[in-house]
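Quick one:
INPUT:
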C-alpha cells in the first residue's frame, strides 16, 4: 500500500511525533510511505529523512495565491497515485480532496479539542472516507455537530524505552518535576507551574522543575519565575530534540500537565512509558482515559493548586508509592498505548476501505469556505502588507 501523510510543516510537536511513529510502523509492514508538507519544511524535516521516509515539501510562498496553492497541492497529491492519504490539519490539502481519484482513501485525523482544528478537519467532510479522532472527547464533539460523519477513535501509541533507564527515587532527595509542551497559558496552563512550585516550597517539599518547550508565553513565564525568586529551582531549557525529550522524561519523577484542554495529551503517555508519574488536570474523556487516577498518576480538579501540592507531597513523602505508580504507569502504557495497537487499527481501517468504491466529484472543485476570501489575494500583496504592518509597528513602537 502506498500511503501519504500530509502536514502543514514538520515542526516538533505531537502531530509530527504521531506521523513519524505511525509512518515507521507502516514501513515495517511493507508499505511505501511519503511525508508531505504543504506550507514549509520545519525543523523536523531532516529527522524524517533520516528515518528512511520519502519527504517532500511544496512551500506556500512559491504559489501566486493561496487558492492557486490549494489547486497545486491537490494535483500534487493526485500525481502521487496514493492508495491512502492521511491528513493532519493541512488546510490546503483538505480543501482539495475532491481533486483526488475515487480509489484514494482520504482520512483526516483530529488531534486536538480546538475549534480551528475541527473546522479544518471537518471541512469537505463529504469527500472524506472517514475521520479519526484521537480521543473519546474529540469523537463526541464531531458526532454532536455532524452525526452523519463516520469517525473512529484510535489512541496514539508510543514505543517502550529501549532500556530501563528509569530514574531512581531516594528518600529525602528533591522530587524532579518536568513540564513538556508549548509554553502557552491559554491551552497548556503554564502559569500554574510557578504557583505549584511555590506551594510545594511552602509545604517543605524539596522540588526542582524543568520546563521543556517554547511558545508565546515563554518571556512572561520567565518573568514570573524571576519575580518569585525561583531561578535556582525552575529551569527553562527551551525546545529539545525528539530523542532528548524522551531522555528528559526518564530522568524526572513527576510530569506536570496543567492543560485546560487537549485532544489526547500525548506527553502524558510518553511520560508514563518512561516511568515518570503524571499529575495532570482532569479533562473529561481525555486525561481520565490516558491516566488511571491513583494507579499510574493523579488527576486534579479544575487545576486546583492545593490539590497539585497535596498529591506531589504524597509522592515526595512515600518513596514506595512513587515506585509502585511508576511501575504501574509503564505497564499500563505497554498494554494499552503501544504503537502496534495504533498501527493495526489504522491499517485495518485503510484495508477495509480500499474494498469500497468512493465516488468523488470529478470537476475541479475546492472547499472555498475553508480557504476564505483572503485566499484570492496574491502572495506578494500579502507579504507587502505584512512588511508594512511590521514597519509601522517598529516606527511607532506599537507592541504586537
Amino acid at each position: 500500500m502506498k500511503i501519504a501523510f500530509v502536514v502543514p510543516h514538520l515542526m516538533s510537536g505531537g502531530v509530527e511525533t504521531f506521523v513519524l511513529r505511525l509512518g515507521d510502523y507502516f514501513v515495517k509492514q511493507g508499505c511505501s510511505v511519503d511525508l508531505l508538507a504543504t506550507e514549509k519544511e520545519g525543523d523536523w524535516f531532516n529527522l524524517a529523512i533520516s528515518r528512511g521516509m520519502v519527504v517532500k515539501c511544496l512551500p506556500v510562498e512559491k504559489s501566486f495565491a493561496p487558492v492557486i496553492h490549494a489547486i497545486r497541492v491537490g494535483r500534487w497529491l493526485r500525481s502521487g497515485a496514493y492508495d491512502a492519504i492521511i491528513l493532519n490539519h493541512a488546510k490546503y490539502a483538505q480543501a482539495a480532496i475532491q481533486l483526488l481519484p475515487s480509489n484514494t482513501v482520504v482520512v483526516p485525523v483530529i488531534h486536538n479539542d480546538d475549534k480551528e482544528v475541527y473546522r479544518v478537519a471537518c471541512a469537505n467532510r463529504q469527500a472524506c472516507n472517514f475521520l479519526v479522532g484521537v480521543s473519546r472527547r474529540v469523537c463526541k464533539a464531531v458526532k454532536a455537530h455532524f452525526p452523519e460523519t463516520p469517525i473512529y477513535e484510535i489512541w496514539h501509541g508510543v514505543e517502550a524505552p529501549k532500556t530501563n533507564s528509569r530514574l531512581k527515587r531516594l528518600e529525602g532527595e528533591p522530587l524532579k518535576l518536568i513540564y513538556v509542551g508549548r509554553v502557552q497559558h491559554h491551552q497548556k496552563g503554564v502559569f500554574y507551574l510557578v504557583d505549584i512550585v511555590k506551594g510545594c516550597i511552602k509545604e517543605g517539599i524539596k522540588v526542582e522543575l524543568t520546563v521543556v518547550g517554547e511558545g508565546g508565553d515563554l518571556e512572561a513565564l520567565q518573568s514570573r519565575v524571576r519575580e518569585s525568586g525561583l531561578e535556582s529551582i525552575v529551569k527553562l531549557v527551551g525546545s529539545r530534540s525528539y530523542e532528548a525529550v524522551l531522555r528528559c522524561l526518564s530522568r524526572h519523577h513527576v510530569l506536570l500537565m496543567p492543560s485546560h484542554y487537549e485532544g489526547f495529551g500525548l506527553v502524558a503517555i510518553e511520560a508514563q512509558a518512561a516511568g515518570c508519574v503524571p499529575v495532570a488536570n482532569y479533562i473529561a474523556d481525555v486525561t481520565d482515559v490516558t491516566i488511571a487516577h491513583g494507579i499510574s498518576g493523579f488527576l486534579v480538579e479544575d487545576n486546583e493548586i492545593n490539590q497539585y501540592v497535596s498529591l506531589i507531597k504524597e509522592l515526595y513523602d512515600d518513596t514506595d508509592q512513587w515506585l509502585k505508580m511508576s511501575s504501574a504507569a509503564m505497564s499500563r502504557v505497554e498494554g494499552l498505548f503501544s504503537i502496534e495497537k495504533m498501527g493495526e487499527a489504522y491499517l485495518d481501517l485503510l484495508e477495509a476501505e480500499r474494498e469500497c468504491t468512493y465516488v468523488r466529484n470529478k470537476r475541479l472543485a475546492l472547499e472555498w469556505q475553508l480557504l476564505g476570501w483572503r485566499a484570492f489575494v496574491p502572495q506578494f500583496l500579502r507579504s507587502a502588507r505584512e512588511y508594512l504592518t511590521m514597519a509601522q509597528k517598529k516606527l511607532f513602537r506599537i507592541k504586537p
